[in-house]
Amino acid sequence: SVSVDTAATGPTIDPSMYGVFYEDINRAADGGLYAELVQNRSFEYSPTDNRSYTGLTSWTSSATAGGSGTAATVDDGARLGERNRTYLRLALTNPTGGTFGVSNSGYNTGIPLEAGKTYDFSVWARTDSTTGTPLTVTLRDAARTTAYASPVSVAVAGDTWRKYTGTFVASASTTSGRLAVEAGGTGTLRLDMISLFPRDTFKDRPNGLRKDLADKIAALHPGFVRFPGGCLVNTGSMDSYDAANAYPRARSYQWKDTIGPVEQRATNANFWGYNQSYGLGYYEYFQFAEDIGAQPVPVLPALVTGCGQNRATVDDALLQRHIQDALDLIEFANGPVTNEWGAKRAAMGHPAPFGLKRIAIGNEENLPDQYFANFVKFEAAIKAAHPDVTVISNSGPDDMGTTFDRLWDLNKAHGTAMLDEHYYNSPDWFLQNNKRYDTYDRQGPKVFLGEYASLDNKLRNSLAEAAYMTGLERNADVVKMASYAPLLSNIDYVQWKPDMIWFDNNASWGSTSYEVQKLFMNNVGNQVVPSTATGSVAQAKPITGAIGLSTWATAARFDDVTVTGADGGQLFADDFSGDASRWTPLAGRGSWSVQNGEYVQSDTGAQDTLVRAGDVSWHDYDLHLKATKTAG
Ligand code: AHR
């Protein structure tokens, strides 16, 4: 029974308490939330992003009958821009007919197209042919047997870069289309930024977001969006910032590289091992946050890299430059159009301020003293120029025996307004730590739980998270913000799991953790009402009686599992975790072996104890058993 003390009042809950943490991990952006359908559109992929890459990754040469030529990626003085340097050079040798060019295979299984939908094509091009170069652009299958739309014709004229556009209406649906750009005639044709967007983006914004994914995030009604990382913000942050060193590879993740006309933006080696375009950049993040009614919470690097790198900068000039970047970012978000950075925001289409109220410095830096020394410099500069903006420090969790504990102590002593905690743990940990914030110092820094998740995508994990969130909410006077992490994962490019929303190139689906987050975010109370619960918690039932013949039986939260009288048959056990290492203790008992990912015991004998409580780390998981013999 639950007793509610209606006479008493607990802490006030901020309407923006629950939000999302967006990071470009698991290819969340290109091939995901960013609606661009062409992979490596600007030919900037390079082995420095990923050893398997070339400038032509995801492109193949293609020709019609009689057409020929060569295709190469080039970075020379003819480039489209200082930050977008590499382009495609086609040497065309089609004097008597035919066309030659390239085709793009998109992400996952190919370019997804839906019958009846409109797609916007664009390309930047120049030609040295004095008569011009005709381009034929098609949407087709890889084998060239099926066309998915009428071709688009483009006449390229002149040897200076110009943008050409065209529109397709798909006549059939596919998940494995190709975009082919083929040219007739002779001469040198230069192409860059070959792009295809569905017209139907979130809020119909050009250079916009994939609708199904953005809709799923919007349906959460998050109070804030933390972006762009995560470890990603530490990417190359201690590398020299000078233009001479910064390009052709941008190296460090700099927000200024991500704004302005899209064809002038850099791409970068993503922390998670692939190339990321900056098509989805800071302007788009702010716009998205505004579109879904969430506060933007950008994270900037503190020049003390965590995430396994453990280095701190000793370059004060570089540090000052990053501090200036933080100040400029606040002007970009909030400044008047007369300000240099406010003017850039206005030029991109948003003269009104975005209303930035919070900014976070750093991510998981485990050199506490070095981080803190930098943090206070950022904080002092921001507070002096923008006293209304809360500067969030980085901490890691308190009192968990890690180096982050010291960061908490430093921040407490300093009087830091808010700290960003992160933790990923087992469901049991979340259940056992429901009271974590009950004892936090009410006078100390407020908590931004910027990253947390129970370590799997099963119902049990989400229930543990939901239970834990009641503890966050009970302590809403201390825990001011919380976001599950990570938000997005492309099923074919998984660097990290569990994740909240999964997708491939044409579909997306929320995990049970997504449903939990949605439930909480769509039902934020305004005040905690103290309550107590009494009574015993029902235990899940073990398997009793006969185990099904070739049908899995389930023991939830089992203790000892004893099987009696299964002599002569085979007994299969699995926890469906997909993690064979969890079964090591089991494999050591009796004659168990692994077959096809399941544990099998032949001729089990009259009685066998399979596992005992506490034996195995997967005690948190359900155990499933089935037999090949009905006896026993
Ligand atoms: O959420 C995935 C990663 O986990 C983040 O990039 C990092 O901050 C944490 O370690």
Could you characterize the architecture of this molecule?
The chain has about 625 residues and is α/β, with parallel strands linked by helices. Helices cover about 20% and strands about 30% of the residues. The protein contains eleven helices and 35 strands. Strands 2-14-17-20-21-22-23-24 form an eight-stranded parallel beta barrel, surrounded by five helices. Strand 32 (about 595) and strand 33 (about 600) form a beta hairpin. Helix 9 runs parallel beside helix 10 (about 510-520). The site of alpha-L-arabinofuranose (AHR) has 13 residues, from loops. Its EC number is 3.2.1.55. It is an enzyme of class 3 (hydrolase).
Which percent range fits the helix content? Answer: 10-25%
Number of domains: 3
CATH topology of the largest domain, what is it called? TIM Barrel
Distance between the termini: 40 Å
Query: How many β strands by DSSP?
Result: 35
Mean pLDDT: 88
Major β-sheet profile: 8 strands, parallel, barrel
> Which radius of gyration do the C-alpha atoms yield?
28 Å
- CATH evolutionary superfamily of the largest domain: Glycosidases
Which blocks of ≥5 consecutive residues have pLDDT under 50? 611-620
Task: Tell me which CATH architecture of the largest domain applies here.
Answer: Alpha-Beta Barrel
Organism: Terrabacter terrae
Enzyme class: hydrolase
Protein name: non-reducing end alpha-L-arabinofuranosidase
Family: Belongs to the glycosyl hydrolase 51 family.
